[in-house]
Amino acid sequence: MTTDKPLQIAVVGSGPSGCFLAQALNRKRPNDIIIVFDQLAAPYGLIRYGVATDHQQTKSITRQFDRLFAKENVKFAGNIEIGADIKIEDLREQFDVVALATGRPNARQLDVPGKDLEGVYTAADLIYSLNSFRGKTDVFSTLGEHIVLVGGGNVALDILRFLIKEHTDYDGSDINDDALEAYLDAPVKSVTVLNRSSIDEAKSDSAMLRELGSIEGVRFSSNHSPKDGLDENSAAARRRAAVDSLVTDQPSTPRVEVGFWFSTAPEQFLGTDTLEAIQIHETETHESSEIHADSVITAVGFEADDKSPIYKGHESLMRITEDSGRIEPGLYRTGWLKRGAVGTIPANRACAQDVAKEILADIDGNHIHTATEKRGIDGLRHHLAEDPISFAQWVLANEKELSLAEVNRVRKKFVGQQGIIDQATTQS
Ligand SMILES: Cc1cc2nc3c(=O)[nH]c(=O)nc-3n(C[C@H](O)[C@H](O)[C@H](O)COP(=O)(O)OP(=O)(O)OC[C@H]3O[C@@H](n4cnc5c(N)ncnc54)[C@H](O)[C@@H]3O)c2cc1C
């Protein structure tokens, strides 16, 4: 292959990993055509649909990707599901390089007896509605007064913040107000946060814990014991300091109680059809006990959507690896699909840059062979019933969302994809 011919590069997934990869490749090979496909009409994956609605600063990273898509040679192709609308094999026939950045969007289920009882929810049941990925669900009006939250990472803390915040705490957010109002009609009185790990090994960031301290009317408690001799700059010491400070600053008349129970894991969800209690055990002493709960929300990680047609016959693509992103010359993967559902947005930048280096080395080393002329997306039009949503069309939908923002909100999101598609296609 000659390297002066512009290559056709397909990136599948417009979440942070796909966008960082497109950015890194475009910097080194500004003449190549890069098409970033997404099954959704809106770009940016979990930045739009996962990151908490009150963390707009985090979401603002999309501005740098907006600038990427403003380039003539980098295009967004939304509302195209690879694996369903276009097979990977067909994509590879028309593109010199195909890189998968399809993420791991499904909430992992906690595999304990009683997991199917009514009243047992996953983080995704709340987060995807709060972010308008789907409409309001019954979960918001059926949580009850006493909630057990299972999980010790940042997503659990996103859920906790939601459970204990009041209406005005959402100023400046893009929360789905139908879901918020349904919840605030009867908010919780107590949240018990079960963390299998000790406070020293917990996954949560101290900054996220400290942020809880700015919410009025919450009384925090924790079961951790003091410990001497920790390096004060260690993550464990900072986490302890954050929890200690939450516990020290007590309101006189709390609205809601939050208990952090470290080294404690659920054994069983109890109830006939509906959840009534949780059997828990202390992971160090192995003591068991039972606590009452109206509902439980599990935030124990995310995994690949193994039902997605893209993986049919390509199951090995879901294998987690810290090694190479190269599956074979010409086919690559990056981000959460490659490394598993761990790491924040910046970790995907580093991952994408490493995979970009592998791709560039394969191009420079002539390891990518093309048998026929590759036509990129033009060679695939016959597979598509409708044209992809372009970036310019997405901008129209985006502007509409911004213009519809109600008082104290930064935007009013379309719920799901159809509103975006309608807006994008009728205006253009
Ligand atoms: C609830 C939650 C909150 C988080 N909050 C933060 C935070 O505050 N700060 C932070 O730094 N990190 C946060 N993270 C982590 C961050 O979201 C991830 O690190 C990041 O989104 C992973 O990027 P990705 O591009 O690999 O996957 P994703 O963001 O999931 O993007 C994958 C994209 O691929 C598309 N796709 C999938 N299958 C197909 C297909 N077959 N065809 C076409 N397109 C497809 C999807 O529609 C999606 O757009 C959070 C994660 C979660 C789950």
TrEMBL record:
Cited Gene3D superfamilies: FAD/NAD(P)-binding domain, NAD(P)-binding Rossmann-like Domain
The reaction(s) this protein catalyses: 2 reduced [2Fe-2S]-[ferredoxin] + NADP(+) + H(+) = 2 oxidized [2Fe-2S]-[ferredoxin] + NADPH
Pfam families attached to this UniProt entry: Pyr_redox_2 (PF07992)
Domain of life: Bacteria
UniProt keywords, alphabetically: FAD, Flavoprotein, NADP, Oxidoreductase
Reported cofactor(s): FAD
Catalytic class of the enzyme: oxidoreductase
InterPro entries cross-referenced by the UniProt entry: FAD/NAD-bd_sf, FAD/NAD-binding_dom, Ferredox_Rdtase
Protein's name in the database: ferredoxin--NADP(+) reductase
